[in-house]
Amino acid sequence: MNNILEFRPKCAHDESLSDCREALEPAVMKIVSDAIGKGYTAAEAAMVVADIADDYILMLSRQLQH
């Protein structure tokens, strides 16, 4: 799996994002693996994880606006 952070311009938060990814990626990969074990495809599982993350980001943005 490619690390998208490799393609982004450097910014002050790069190290923090990289550290966070390193900490969370194994858990996300386990979620995908567990979903595959339940009969879903890797693509389906990854899409659902991304969709959940997107919903969470939208929720956070709404909280910041209030």
From TrEMBL:
Listed name of the protein: Uncharacterized protein
Organism lineage: Bacteria, Pseudomonadati, Pseudomonadota, Alphaproteobacteria, Hyphomicrobiales
